[in-house]
Amino acid sequence: MDTVVDEFSLSLSNVVKWIAIGAIVFGGIVPYIPQYKEIKRTEDTEGFSLFVCLTLLIANTLRIFFWFGKQYELPLLIQSIIMNITMIAMVHLCVNIRNKNQIIRSKDKVFSEVSSKDDTSGRSHKSNKQRFPVHTFRDFDLQYFWAWTDFISYIDFLIVFHIACGIVMYLFIDVPLFVELVGFLAVLFEAMLGVPQLKKNYQNKSTLGMSVQMVLMWTTGDIFKTIYFLVRQAPPQFWICGVLQILIDIGILTQVYWYRNSSGVRAKKQDMPD
After folding, report:
1. What end-to-end distance do the CA atoms of the chain give, in Å?
2. Residue among 210, 193, 192 nearest 201 (CA)
């Protein structure tokens, strides 16, 4: 009887372990599913900060390179790889929709200008031309960093960043202090994940366009993984920054409540005549 109970307990323990591993590996991308669907449905990216994607791409890239210097649990490494793929997909969607909206606004503006000229001077209508500024990574203009108009520029930046990280890690991989610093920076960047969204909401004086489901899932996931880090005795950098993430998530949820009856600066700008 005792043997059966022990086997059942072991089996149950293994099931719980694999569920926890699955949650760690794939749980991080779940919050972005409702936000992805919201952006695709509304064809509007204004409520979502693209710097959230940048923050996670940097954090998870650093975490991947940290693994080469200090091999932590494999599920956490796999999670970082999957998260990077997810963030690239988010960037691709946002850039495509943003460009589509710019083209529409540009055509509307040109049509309005031409119609106005036709009404006052009787001049014939000329063909509309696409009129919106194009910015790329290859321009090396810091003013438009991470606000490029072509998706390839984001890929170019990531390639350069990966190469730079790879070279530096290769040179200093035998220096324990440096390796620990990389690990700390990785989780610190991840802890700052909510800051761009926090800032975006404050600037808009609204949470319109931001998926509240995404933030609730952030909070749930951050609580779960922080507990996981503590139980699995992950490097202290992980759980310390996990606690910081939870506090930022709470800050964003506070904004949801605070701005619940506010249409925000963004809506007021849209209502103003050009």
Report:
1. 80
2. 210
Dihedral class, residue 28 (left if φ above 0, else alpha if ψ from -120 to 50, else beta): alpha
- What is the distance of C-alpha 163 from the center of its chain? 21
- Alpha carbon separation from 164 to 70, 140, 147, 158, 171 (Å, rounded): 19, 17, 21, 10, 11
> What predicted TM-score, i.e. pTM, was given to this entire model?
0.74
Question: Per 3-state DSSP, what percentage of the chain is helix, strand, and coil (rounded to 5)?
Answer: 75, 0, 25
Taking only the tens place, the pLDDT of each residue in 201-236 is 888 888 887 888 888 888 888 888 888 778 877 777
Q: Which candidate, 44, 90, 58, places its Cα nearest to that of 208?
A: 44
Distance from C-alpha of 208 to C-alpha of 89, rounded to nearest angstrom: 22
Are the CB atoms for 27 and 224 separated by under 8 Å? Answer: yes
Residue 129's H or E segment, with its range, is none
- The Cα–Cα gap between 170 and 165 comes to 8
pLDDT in tens, 78-100: 999 999 999 999 999 999 999 99
Amino acid code (one letter) for 246 = I
Q: Identify the CA nearest to 56 among candidates 214, 227, 169, 192.
A: 192
- Of the candidates 106, 107, 92, 114, the residue with the CA atom closest to the CA atom of residue 40: 92
Question: How many angstroms separate the CA atoms of 191 and 65, rounded?
Answer: 18
